[in-house]
Design brief:
The protein is of the alpha/beta class. It has 12 helices and 10 strands. The chain has a 6-stranded parallel sheet with strand order 2-1-3-4-5-8, with helices on both faces. A two-stranded parallel ribbon has the order 6-10. A two-stranded antiparallel sheet has the order 7-9. α1 packs across α2, α8 runs parallel beside α12 and α9 packs antiparallel against α10. The protein starts with a helix and ends in a 6-residue tail after the last helix.
Amino acid sequence: MTETQSTTQKSTQGTADVLVIGGRGKTGRRVVERLAAQGRGVRVGSRSGDPAFDWNDPEGWARALDGVDRVYVTYYPDLGFPGAEERVAAFAKAAVAAGVRRLVLLSGRGEEGAQRAEERLKESGADWTVVRAGWFAQNFDEGIFVDDVRAGTLALPTGDAVEPFVDADDIADVVVAALADDRHIGRTYELTGPRLMSFAEVAAELSKATGREIAYVPVSDEAYRAALRELEDVPEEFADLFEMLRDGRNARTEDGVREVLGREPRDFTAYARDAAATGVWDV
């Protein structure tokens, strides 16, 4: 166990003033690490946490919220999916009743369902900040596309759509700032990377980083949905996110990272280089 791991473990047990829902996920894990490094008492909100947190078990929320002053709220599998709006509203109400003063919500750009959930959370009476993020770069090494990269083929229904992929480290830095600084209360930030990229360009960047060919192969929406139905842990509704990608509603960059952190967002090239160095895509 490294010193950093020891500090993180120690600060996520016992008394905590910050609850990080999804604290073992792509952004939540990074938020936990940053808060622990600052010496903050942080509680990991997950089904394997102590106390456990499960979006489908409202009766268990009170234990996770006990003593907590602020919460980073992430919703799995996606804030725009059916049922998310109602659960987020119920959780926000429970959080305020438990004494929580600030809620920072991770939302999605251009998702109508997610924006309805945002409004329900705002109605809770807590101080709030909304962080709307685009597609994570880390989807390629920590998420749904990692096995595709290892196999050398990204077979996706994206056509020639473009997306400003955002680094999860940038999201975590913004969330930590929003949890701590009153200047972010009542603000909605849209976070993107610094440039628009097609999935063919993503494949080219990954090829360069790994030193082997990663091909992009466009497939139909119907074929992709059929493939998702064969997976146990990915809902078919995930394909809806590709529809929003193809219609171009998010085909622009935003200044949220710069506005909050005073620096440029991290570029996909740097992400791919550093991820490749970990060996995650080695075959």
